[in-house]
Amino acid sequence: MYLALTIFALTYVLLLAYSKYRAYIAAGAALLFIVLSLAPIRDLLGLTVTFMPLSGVFAAIEWNVILMIFGTMGLVSLFIESKMPALMADKIIEKTPNVKWAVIALAIFAGFISAFVDNVATVLMVAPIALTIAKKLKISPVKMIIAIAVASNLEGAATLVGDTTSILLGGYAGLDFFDFFFYLGKPSMFWINQIGLLAAVLVLFRVFRKDSQPVRIEDRAVVTDYVPSILMVLMIVLLITASFIPNTPALINGYICTGLAVFGVVRKAIVKKNREAFMETVKDVDFFTLLLLASLFVVVKSIENAGVITAISQLLFQVSGGNVFVIFTVILWGSVLLSAFIDNIPYVATMLPVVTLIAANIAVQSGLEAAAQQQLVTLLYFGLLSGATLGGNMTPIGASANITGIGILRKEGYEVTTAEFMKIGVPFTLAAVTTAYVLLWVIWS
Questions:
Q1: Domain annotation covers residue 336
Q2: 79: domain range?
Q3: CB-based contacts of 82: which residues, under 8 Å, 6+ apart?
Q4: Would you say the pTM of this structure is higher than 0.70?
Q5: Considering its fold, how many domains does the chain have in total?
Q6: Looking at the domain assignment, is residue 333 inside a domain?
Q7: pLDDT for 351-390, tens place per residue?
Q8: Cβ atoms of 445 and 324 closer than 8 Å
Q9: What share of the chain is helix, strand, coil (3-state, %, to 5)?
Q10: Which residue in 291, 269, 295 sits closest to 280, CA to CA?
């Protein structure tokens, strides 16, 4: 376990320090765990744990997430080519007096979309609008893209389909789409996130307080093809619809996004009578980001197999001493800190049964009735979801949306340092998490 923890810590230090090589660093760490799991190497080093057997590498990767990102990138490529983002950018510029208000509008817009679509997909959809505005005004898009990414992450916990972590919780706890609005007769995650967004927007106002450059347009963009926009809307509708259908395939979201992207590319090739249309779209897919995410899944699964995440969970319970307020505080803020560095999908998947067990133990010790126990476990579930989802905004590698946003900037020639990201991410996160922390306790304690 200590060897796994050492490799993990070193990997994340390197990821934070060398942004240009993050995918290769993560892939190297994943490969190291695989090599250390080979029988001859284990025997040579005297290891008793198999970190990542070759047979488990494929299963360790969240292919639903990878396929969803891949498909959405393809759809977004068509979306940009249609000039719809440019038109939306023009409309936002027309309605806002300066850069500050334009960025705030984009962040809120991204948050709204992210409540119903995976936050990575949201960043991929909204980032082109920010890039277009930045190009028109000849300013850096870095802070704008960061604001969009963190707002998307925040609202990912608002609904069942907003983020993979929400999907994990919904499936494990048996929650449906509307339970995220009202549950057990109480306001649920959607309303808590909206108030958190308002608090976080105040942070953005401070960050962009000096960006008072007026915004204007000379010639409004003209949309050349409305089909990509229809496909984007259809993707949202299908993702929401899929959440209501029981026993869907595990990769349903990935199938939806990738299937629509393939349809769009094939249609483009037929309409333009150009066989190279497929390759034109594939070139816009950020394989660097896909490699990074896939490698991180393998790395985190490896430390899970080594017992690192379980040990951390046990430590959380010991620290609480069985006190509900303490365990709620530790779970929420501990999740914030861990999710700043650990991908929150495998973390939440691991912590859900741990939280359930903690709630059951507290219920037995306190003699709680069934209704009170249900409220207790809900408090801890929502605390875990809030901390793990919002905590990803602390660092550039804490959430897939952040990685995606930075990948978009890198393709545009902008390298984002860890310090540059955290100047926005940390205060934004603290404002949103503190709000959720107080509201969850007041409503659900």
A1: no
A2: 63-287
A3: 223, 224, 225, 226, 227, 228, 229
A4: yes
A5: 1
A6: no
A7: 888 888 888 888 887 888 888 889 999 999 999 999 999 9
A8: yes
A9: 75, 0, 20
A10: 269
